[in-house]
Amino acid sequence: MARTVLIVDDEVTLRETLAENLEAEGYRVVTAADGQEALRQFRGERPDLVLLDLMLPVLSGVEVCRIIRQESGVPILMLTAKDAEIDKVVGLELGADDYVTKPFSLRELQARIRALLRRSEQPPGVEQTPSVVELGRVEVDLAGHRLLRDGQPVPVKPKAFELLSFLLRHPGQVFTREQLLTNVWGYDYAGESRTVDVHVHWLRAHIEEDPGEPRFLHTVRGVGYVFRRPTE
């Protein structure tokens, strides 16, 4: 069965071009021109992936992202303007899985879509172990896909948890941003690496006593990130 992609963009030409291109790739496509219609289509069609422009009439893309993420874990790929850095950060903080910056190539967009769908299609049990990793007051339940602080569940975005799980499974190994994007996001990412930085920022806020002086998730200047336990 063809995977369904919901395209949300108020630019008619872009919306129609994307729909035609994705249909040629074998996807079933539904579209929306504003935020309100996007939610109506999302709830009625239950797409496998949402391609979401953040600059929308009626209801903003940021608000649409927030509402969808409350209702579903469906992959959300944001479309943002080149200079809209704050929109990218806000969208990612609300639970979007990735973003592309306009203008973008159709080949790049297709690669992002395939990567997100591939991640969401992984069968249950992949990389799941019955282990709980203790990080001070925080417990990372890898099998249950949960983060607990003082025994209480902490809301964490799916991709952020995947990133944390990957680093926990490779303690002491330094990864570049590109390597993390390849292993966690599932594709080679040529260009902006802000996505990894934002997710590490979230994780530090959750697991570190002082995010400004991290004890577990360390930055290796000029290289990338590594998980290390503090030396007692």
Helices and strands in order:
Layout: E1 4-8, H1 12-24, E2 28-32, H2 35-45, E3 49-53, H3 61-71, E4 76-80, H4 85-93, E5 98-101, H5 106-120, E6 132-135, E7 138-141, E8 146-149, E9 152-153, H6 158-168, E10 175-176, H7 177-185, H8 194-207, E11 217-220, E12 224-227
Parallel strand pairs: 1-2, 1-3, 3-4, 4-5
Antiparallel strand pairs: 6-7, 7-8, 8-9, 10-12, 11-12
Helix pairs in contact: 2-3, 6-7, 6-8
How does this structure look, described?
This protein is of the alpha/beta class and 232 residues long. 40% of the residues lie in helices and 21% in strands. The chain has a 5-stranded parallel sheet with strand order 2-1-3-4-5, with helices on both faces. Strands 6-7-8-9 form a 4-stranded antiparallel sheet, with helices on one face. It has a 3-stranded antiparallel sheet with strand order 10-12-11. The N and C termini lie far apart (54 Å).
List keywords for this structure.
5-stranded parallel sheet, alpha/beta, 4-stranded antiparallel sheet, 12 strands, 232 residues, 40% helix, 8 helices
